[in-house]
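Revision sheet: structure tokens.
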Amino acid sequence: MRKLWIAGVLSGLLLLGACGDPSSEPESAPPPPAPAPARTSPSSTTHQRPAATPDADGGANEGADGGAGTRTEAPAKGPSSSPTVLYLGDSLAMENQKVLGGLMRDELKARYTSTPYSGTTPCDYLEGTGKDSLVPPKDKAAALVRTLRPDFVVLQFWGNAWDYTPCMDGIAYDKARDKYFARYTADARRLTDQIAGAADGARPEIVWVLQGPDPMTPDRVRRVNAIYERQAAASGDLLADAGKAVSPASARYTWTQYLPCTAYEREHTPYCTQPGSGRTALHRDDDYLHFCMAPTTTTPKPCPVRSPGILRISRAITGAVAAQLD
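Predicted:
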């Protein structure tokens, strides 16, 4: 069984970028231990209708259009009871964006914009990175803040670093760990400053999403989350511990493919994938990183099927924002 699992993990490395790099052709993946997303040429964010709202079961409706993200143009800023939310991040944000948008609209009456790019890091969303970034200038965090004037900016970055992210200058966890963590720390601070500086009037609250376990480099994720925690504390911003929702209750940084079904999942059977044993799948057998239960593709798009991990993560993020509105 262990050999089969390892084979599945290694084959999954070739597909990790497919959850959402903003188009173009994949390159070969770098060697383990880090799963590399496919590098692509940045493309414009697609202007579309608002992303589909989850149905009564909390799942994504079928028929979502693909693209580098769903840009829902926000109207003029309204009262705080109807917040404007901007969601930025990597391939995990790419797959989450439709379900999160539905929850934000249904539960918070939010005006919601998502502009994720797979394979990205905080430095990709910094202004000044230009051609050395997977994110085009118009979709940088500060540019979007000036245009949309959001109340909340949700940032979700798993910890990409390798050569597929040009703005990291080749700094990778497996090659230069101290430089990797120092760079993430500095970029988290710079991104916070640029978002604050771009605000017209009230500064948006930043929500740093804490990541779930990684079976290959568990300490890396723990330390990346600690960077986000320190930055949020230093700037008075927020945390959404979405990673806790996809971790064992007694082992926050222990990776698992399955968890016991929640009460909600038991009541909504598509989300309790193994009702006989009372557990549900968070990952596919061939992809230990992403939470979408559909196979990865080379076309960037939100996850098209009901996926327990995505719903858990999206509920945690929505809850963190909702707590600030009470």
